[in-house]
Amino acid sequence: MRFLLVFDFDHTIIDENSDTWIVKCAPGRKLPNGLRNSYQPGHWTEYMGRVFVYLGENGVKEDEMKRTMTTIPFTAGMIELLGFIGENKELFDCIIVSDSNTVFIDWILKAADFHKVFDEVFTNPAAFNSTGYLTVQHFHAHHCAKCPENLCKRKVLKEFLDKQLERGVSYTQIVYIGDGGNDLCPVMFLKKDDIAMPRQGYTLEKKISQLAQSLSPVECSVLVWSSAVDIMSYLKLLIKE
């Protein structure tokens, strides 16, 4: 028995959006209108690239960004849940698939000492360049019309599972925990023995229920959560079985 837990990051592990939280570092804790209005749907990564240039030009350094990012609160119950998973790593493989970036996720997980809970993190690669500005790139290229051009989470999940199979690892069940519209594509890839856990009141839950209403429901089971303690209760049941 081995279970795969797939987590989104923003509004799932942490209770905020890491990309919008960084704006607290900007002069006056806000972005100029021109920059704010420059976002085009499906091109969030490029938009964040411009935000990081703006922060760099305004003298915002790496240590200030790190201090700000590590103040983001975890979602209710998440610290307990990640602690529980950490104690039961022999049963759970655990990955993050996120539209945030490697620098932010690394800072936040290490500050809270949760980086060992996760086997792999799939997110947009980021690094500080020679001028000290944070830069971010697309995670990969893909051909999925449903997803933003920098990241198709279904493709990530499928490739991870294929790689695990080559190593001789298969899973009794996949548990997918997320909140956003870009989590629907991987959820639709899940099979009937798997379970999707959308966060209550967020986009993913609404999209799954719209599919059910239009009589094309997702194949997997669905269990809504509001606190990560709900997820932990379910995982405890899984282990007992």
TrEMBL record:
<feature type="binding site">
    <location>
        <position position="99"/>
    </location>
    <ligand>
        <name>substrate</name>
    </ligand>
</feature>
<feature type="active site" description="Proton donor">
    <location>
        <position position="10"/>
    </location>
</feature>
<feature type="binding site">
    <location>
        <position position="19"/>
    </location>
    <ligand>
        <name>substrate</name>
    </ligand>
</feature>
<dbReference type="InterPro" id="IPR023214">
    <property type="entry name" value="HAD_sf"/>
</dbReference>
<feature type="binding site">
    <location>
        <position position="8"/>
    </location>
    <ligand>
        <name>Mg(2+)</name>
    </ligand>
</feature>
<feature type="active site" description="Nucleophile">
    <location>
        <position position="8"/>
    </location>
</feature>
<dbReference type="GO" id="GO:0046872">
    <property type="term" value="F:metal ion binding"/>
</dbReference>
<dbReference type="InterPro" id="IPR016965">
    <property type="entry name" value="Pase_PHOSPHO-typ"/>
</dbReference>
<keyword id="KW-0378">Hydrolase</keyword>
<comment type="similarity">
    <text>Belongs to the HAD-like hydrolase superfamily. PHOSPHO family.</text>
</comment>
<feature type="binding site">
    <location>
        <position position="179"/>
    </location>
    <ligand>
        <name>Mg(2+)</name>
    </ligand>
</feature>
<dbReference type="GO" id="GO:0016791">
    <property type="term" value="F:phosphatase activity"/>
</dbReference>
<dbReference type="InterPro" id="IPR036412">
    <property type="entry name" value="HAD-like_sf"/>
</dbReference>
<dbReference type="Pfam" id="PF06888">
    <property type="entry name" value="Put_Phosphatase"/>
</dbReference>
<dbReference type="InterPro" id="IPR006384">
    <property type="entry name" value="HAD_hydro_PyrdxlP_Pase-like"/>
</dbReference>
<keyword id="KW-0479">Metal-binding</keyword>
<keyword id="KW-0460">Magnesium</keyword>
<feature type="binding site">
    <location>
        <position position="10"/>
    </location>
    <ligand>
        <name>Mg(2+)</name>
    </ligand>
</feature>
<protein>
    <submittedName>
        <fullName>PHOP2 phosphatase</fullName>
    </submittedName>
</protein>
